[in-house]
């Protein structure tokens, strides 16, 4: 099956600032992909490249096997919702649906009307008078009713309260189940990503730090705690992501490259998603790599 997103040595520069550097990814289809990283890491740049809004400076990118926004057919295969969930404030909800039907040859009006009714939006209400959560639901409906193969979201829930976030993500997962669509979703909210994503990309310092299926990544990462000096050097086949020391104790966050760590160290503890992500972000923020840290991990599948 063609990867939903494939990049090779992808780079993007804005003047003197390098927004993305040598990003190589291959994301399988039918995944809900979480894209996480600090501000300025390159998340929005990657999403804008994937949607065809901007062009790369170096390297290549393919979406669903083709160049992003190559033609009208390719545009129809991708639904994109920007960070501020843009809608036209002077148009009603119904106007948005009619506009969507005119602009998109594959428009599913039944789906659009059903979702608008389900979330309680009044077709006659102007979009400018909707709450943030309602605007997000309208934008999601417009993107999904295109019947795309890929939905791209840039921080869609950043400005929403917890209840509106939960409702939006529930609607998103309903669309995923109904449409069998792939999703690329950026967010700072790791708890939300943990609930809905089965694939993860971590960006920091303009580079890919980690990428892969969430279950496999969590299976390979551990916390090791021992008396100081007992883990120096670490066991063979162990990549140290982060190390902290006290006068008596050493704590390592590691990736097991052999699959046998627990055989030798039964006390090794698995991490949750947030701990794993923060370890990679912490490593990327180090001005000089720690003595035992490996190179930033890029996993392609």
What are its keywords?
301 residues, alpha/beta, Rossmann fold, 2 domains, 6-stranded mixed beta sheet, 4-stranded antiparallel beta sheet, 10 helices, 13 strands, 32% helix, disordered C terminus, P-loop_NTPase, AAA+_ATPase
CATH fold title of the largest domain:
Rossmann fold
Q: Note the total helix count.
A: 10
How far is it from the N-terminal to the C-terminal residue, by CA?
12 Å
CATH architecture of the largest domain: 3-Layer(aba) Sandwich
Number of strands: 13
Residue windows where pLDDT falls under 50 for at least 5 positions: 289-301
Helix content: 25-40%
Radius of gyration of CA atoms, rounded to a whole number: 21 Å
Instruction: Please write the string of helix (H) and strand (E) elements.
Output: EEEHEHEHHHEHEHEEHEEEHEH
Largest sheet: 6 strands, mixed
Placed side by side, the strands forming the largest sheet appear as 5-6-7-3-8-9
Q: Beta-strand level of the residues, as a percent range?
A: 25-35%
CATH top level of the largest domain is Alpha Beta
What count of domains describes the coordinates?
A: 2
- General shape: elongated
Given helix and strand content, the structural type is alpha/beta
Mean pLDDT: 90
CATH superfamily of the largest domain: P-loop containing nucleotide triphosphate hydrolases
